[in-house]
Q: What sequence folds into this?
């Protein structure tokens, strides 16, 4: 079965640089979520999109922005990177109204900011 | 505001033991609860999903129960094996929002 695809899997950036993370949801899933997991921490919700519209917003810094495109893939854009942005970034997808509204998680993108 | 905690934070047991991991949440208006396993530096592996209308779910040696009224879920692992060593996270989907709130995790080590 198709899973959530994230690219790149690993990314190394310098401070103050920008980064773009991509997420390709499971086919026919209409909702995408982004989570950030810092070292030794639990995943924290950043933002979600349903049918290309922002549906919920968590603790996402103003330096970050995201969108969902017409093919339902999503991109998380991160600017003016800081050392503290180093984390594992997960994307998840779901089908609104699907069984239990289960979220399916991608393998994550590990971002390292030097 | 939904808060999710897991007890214990860490657990070390000999191989073969049956064990229980606990997840507590403050807002009982949930639409589901999902248990995950995470190996160090790796992604999230979904173990079990319990919908709000369900009381428990089983998969192999794993059994998860849900008591919404008391704000608790337990993950029961039977006959633990060294390969079960990982961090176990519960995530709660609260009604009215789209996001998961994750628990603080239980770091499990099963000794051979």
A:
């Amino acid at each position: 079965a198709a899973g959530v695809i994230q690219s790149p899997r690993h990314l190394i950036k310098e401070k103050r640089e920008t980064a773009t993370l991509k997420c390709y949801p499971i086919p026919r899933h209409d909702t995408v979520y982004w989570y950030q997991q810092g070292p030794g921490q639990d995943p924290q919700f950043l933002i979600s999109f349903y049918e290309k519209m922002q549906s919920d917003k968590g603790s996402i810094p103003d330096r970050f922005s995201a969108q969902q495109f017409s093919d339902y893939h999503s991109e998380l854009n991160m600017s003016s990177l800081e050392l503290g942005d180093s984390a594992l970034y997960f994307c998840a997808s779901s089908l609104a109204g699907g069984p239990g509204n289960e979220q399916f998680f991608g393998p994550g993108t590990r971002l390292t900011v030097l | 505001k939904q808060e999710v905690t897991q007890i214990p934070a860490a657990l070390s047991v000999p191989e073969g033991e049956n064990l229980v991991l606990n997840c507590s949440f403050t807002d009982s208006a949930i639409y589901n609860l999902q248990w995950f396993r995470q190996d160090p530096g790796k992604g999230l592996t979904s173990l079990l999903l319990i919908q709000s209308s369900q009381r428990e779910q089983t998969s192999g040696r794993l059994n998860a129960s849900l008591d919404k009224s008391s704000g608790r879920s337990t993950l029961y692992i039977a006959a633990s094996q060294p390969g079960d060593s990982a961090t176990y996270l519960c995530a709660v989907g609260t009604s009215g929002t789209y996001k998961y709130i994750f628990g603080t995790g239980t770091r499990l080590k099963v000794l051979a």
The first strand of chain B starts at residue 4 and ends at 7. The mean pLDDT of chain B is 94.
